């Protein structure tokens, strides 16, 4: 018998580890699958096998067990972000001094019961996998673009940015016929649940849609997606902004069928807001000398914003 909170098989362990290391294992795996590169797939699996587990399996296992128990209702993901923000324990679980271990030592240690209870409410019916995938991506974009700080120049949270970077690969993996449908549903549910945990780990910043809708592009003013693609390829960084923009464009595509009609309120990012977030990402990173200048390192933390210039 497996011990409580421990994986019952190597397969289960590796599955949960795909989401460790700030999502880099599944990012690499996704690139390998999308472009049919076996060596990159192997690299992604090696990533998964070598990262510190960081309480992540216990989080996934407990959330899944609770969701399957029938004791918690399914709710729109956007409402769960609000729950994380309004629950004092989840909102304050993250600490900037935890550094790169802010997920492991933050909500997955200080508020495990609370974040499990919230995350378990995101549930996808198999016949609505496409919609659930789009909902996950849409809310990830919202949490990245709408977490600005009044009085400061706009910045994208470095950690939350990876939720978008990774999201395109859930679109890729959710379409793979060689993965059983229940496995594809599980991939997306786990990603959305972890997005909530990362939001908590970075201080659960207040999210304001006007931070996106009222953003005035600077260097990217007048650019469409094609022009922005060319521009981001010239940015001196390690590929973060290019992957971020690519993830946003995919989000625009997969969310469009759900922007109107029943349930449209679950998709806060609509129309040109996708491009606006991408422009914000480019404008605020193109001139930074290193990652510490390009991003805010915890959008819910006062200390992180102290390092960001005041707005004019």
How are the SSEs ordered, and which strands pair?
Elements lengths: L9 H8 L6 H11 L3 H13 L5 H13 L8 H10 L1 H4 L15 H4 L1 H8 L9 H17 L12 H16 L7 H21 L8 H4 L11 H8 L7 H16 L17 H11 L7 H4 L7 H5 L6
Helix pairs in contact: 1-3, 2-3, 2-10, 4-8, 5-11, 9-10, 9-11, 9-14, 10-11, 10-14, 13-14, 13-15, 14-15
- What share of residues is helical? 55-70%
Q: What oligomeric arrangement do these chains adopt? A: single chain
Strand fraction: under 5%
Number of domains: 2
What is the CA-based Rg, rounded?
Answer: 18 Å
Shape summary: globular
Question: How many helical stretches?
Answer: 17
Which stretches are low in confidence, meaning pLDDT under 50 for 5 or more residues running?
none
Biggest sheet record: none
Per DSSP E runs of 2 or more residues, the count of β-strands stands at: 0
Structural class: mainly alpha
Q: Could you give the order of the helices and strands?
A: HHHHHHHHHHHHHHHHH
Mean pLDDT: 96
C-alpha end-to-end distance = 61 Å
Main attributes?
312 residues, 2 domains, mainly alpha, 0% strand, single chain
Descriptive notes:
By secondary structure, the protein is mostly helical. Helix 5 (77-86) runs parallel beside helix 11 and helix 13 packs parallel to helix 15. 55% of the residues lie in helices and 0% in strands. The chain is globular. The protein folds into two domains: 9-53, no CATH class; 70-305, no CATH class. The longest helix has 21 residues, at 181-201. It holds the Pfam family Questin_oxidase. GO terms for molecular function: oxidoreductase activity. InterPro entries: Questin_oxidase-like.
């Amino acid at each position: 018998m497996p011990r409580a909170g421990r994986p019952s098989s190597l397969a289960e362990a590796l599955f949960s580890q795909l989401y460790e290391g700030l999502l880099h294992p599944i990012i690499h795996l996704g690139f390998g699958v999308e472009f049919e590169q076996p060596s990159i797939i192997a690299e992604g699996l090696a990533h998964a096998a070598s990262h510190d587990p960081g309480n992540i399996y216990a989080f996934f296992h407990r959330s899944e067990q609770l969701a399957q128990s029938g004791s918690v209702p399914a709710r729109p993901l956007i409402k769960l972000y609000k729950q994380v923000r309004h629950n004092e324990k989840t909102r304050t679980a993250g600490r900037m001094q935890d550094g790169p271990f802010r997920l492991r030592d933050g909500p997955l240690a200080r508020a495990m019961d609370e974040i499990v209870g919230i995350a378990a409410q995101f549930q996808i019916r198999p016949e609505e996998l496409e919609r659930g995938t789009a909902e996950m991506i849409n809310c990830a974009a919202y949490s990245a673009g709408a977490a600005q700080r009044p009085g400061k120049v706009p910045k994208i949270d470095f950690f939350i940015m990876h939720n978008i970077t990774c999201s395109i690969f859930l679109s890729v993996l959710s379409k793979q016929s060689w993965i059983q449908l229940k496995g594809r549903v599980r991939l997306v549910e786990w990603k959305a649940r972890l997005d909530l945990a990362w939001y908590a780990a970075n201080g659960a910043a207040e999210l304001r849609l006007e931070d996106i809708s009222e953003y005035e592009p600077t260097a990217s003013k007048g650019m469409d997606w094609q022009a922005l693609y060319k521009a981001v390829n010239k940015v001196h960084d390690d590929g973060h902004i290019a992957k971020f923009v690519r993830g946003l464009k995919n989000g625009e595509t997969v969310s469009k069928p759900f922007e109107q009609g029943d349930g449209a309120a679950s998709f806060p990012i609509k129309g040109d807001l996708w491009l606006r977030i991408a422009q914000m990402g480019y404008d605020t990173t193109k001139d930074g000398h290193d990652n510490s200048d390009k991003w805010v390192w915890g959008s819910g933390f006062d200390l992180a914003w102290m390092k960001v210039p005041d707005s004019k």
